[in-house]
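Thanks for the sequence, V.! I ran Purine nucleoside phosphorylase right away. Repeating your input here for the record:
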Amino acid sequence: MHSKEQISHDEYQKTSDWLMSHTKHRPIVAIICGSGLGMLADTLKCQDSFDYSDIPGFPQSTVQGHAGRLVFGELKGKSCVCMQGRFHMYEGHSLLKTTFPIRVFKLMGVETLIVTNAAGSLADSLRPGDIMIIKDHINFPGLVGLNPLCGPNDEKFGPRFPAMSGCYDKGLRSLVMELAKQMGVSSLVQEGVYAMVGGPNFETIAEAKLLHRLGVDAVGMSTAPEVVVATHCGLRVFGLSLITNKVVKSYEDSESVNHEGVLEVGRLRSQTVQQLVTELISRMEINNNENTNNVS
Ligand SMILES: O=P(O)(O)O[C@H]1O[C@H](CO)[C@@H](O)[C@H]1O
Ligand SMILES: Nc1nc2[nH]cnc2c(=O)[nH]1
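Predicted structure:
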């Protein structure tokens, strides 16, 4: 990212302070809903919700299937905040704006980030409707310098050169595998590698073949920048992709993907994704049960 844009620590703090003064909740878990997965917020009890347009400093959602609302609430005794709608680079947001909420969450006292997305599968073993636990990612925009951490480093958030080798928490990944077994849905769930591409167009066949050869299991247009920023500031991360379509890899194949189809699979699998995320939040250990951030 070669833009001169910077967001000061104060700006993140102002948004965090505004939110903390408008809700009684003190979230320790943040959830980002992928395309068509906005219903993840429905399970939160005692909700306080805010349209992004009312939150100082927040960008706006422009994509169908991303409502643009921040919902606070309780889930299984844990205080959570849920983004019903994320920001994508292809919408024209800078990567700093795309990832703005993550640092706000950190300042609010969040410890764990759960990212979800809709993705196309490259792996033959992943069918539409399957759930892929993200074990690692390839951040294609990041590899060529489109990285939200480019620019001056704010040491208050994290180091100049953060490690990314363990960015998807191993303990949470095994916990969700175990939960999937207990829920009787383990045939739908497997681990894999997610790749972020810039979008907004879906892949050409040559691009799909390339991604497949590189070992990518599922591809989408989000998530990696959020995870990079979350890892930089010390959040624990769990990620899952709902496989909404197969990426066409053959010139003989006449199928093609569209966003409505992506949203439809989200609706069909919403309950299973919701149950897995609810159980994960219920069962995950947390470091600091007492989020004592003061209301300012
Ligand atoms: O990654 P999420 O936001 O779930 O959305 C995915 O679905 C959209 C394409 O249908 C793209 O935005 C892609 O990234
Ligand atoms: N790039 C990309 N993003 C997606 N999001 C949902 N499906 C897809 C896909 O096939 N490709």
